[in-house]
Amino acid sequence: MSEHDTDSHPQQLLDHRRELWLVLAPLWLDREPGERDYAHMAAVIERYDFSDAELERLYRVEMSPVLARHQLSLAGEWRQFDEDRLLRQLTWHVWRLTPNRRRWWMLISGLTTMMTRHRFNMLMDVVLTRRGDGIS
């Protein structure tokens, strides 16, 4: 399923992305994920047919613009997220992404991902290793 197949209706988008968004959201929490956390995230990612490039886009364009706001907010959620609120925010953000907005978020994603990039890279190392694409 391409990224645009789910854009026609917010509920379809939510149904398709819910599990993946929720498993990746801890990358933005105050605590550093452990080996078990990364293994669980990778196991969930394996259930989806996303390429490395699609996972990168999901991280940079779909999730980071919303979750970086939580990190920058003085009243941000640092220990855990209100799942319903987070899912509404992510769905609304992604559903409204036009091609121009996608390009904009991709362009400035260095700013929105700088606090979590190392975590995402660690996760991708685990994912690639599980796929057999990792460095031996």
Task: Provide a descriptive summary of the structure in words.
With 136 residues, this protein is mainly α. The protein has 7 helices and no strands. The chain is globular and about 35 Å long. 66% of the residues lie in helices and 0% in strands. Mean pLDDT is 87; it is low at 1-6.
Q: Can you give keywords for this protein?
A:
DUF7079 domain-containing protein; DUF7079; 136 residues; globular; mainly alpha; disordered N terminus
Question: Biggest sheet, open or closed, and with what strands and sense?
Answer: none
What structural class results from the helix and strand content?
mainly alpha
End-to-end Cα distance, whole Å, is 31 Å
Instruction: Outline the low-pLDDT stretches.
Output: 1-6
Shape: globular
H/E element string? HHHHHHH
How much β-strand is present in the residues? under 5%
Q: Count of helical segments?
A: 7
Counted beta strands: 0
Mean pLDDT: 87
What integer value in Å does the Rg equal?
A: 14 Å
Residue share in helices? 55-70%
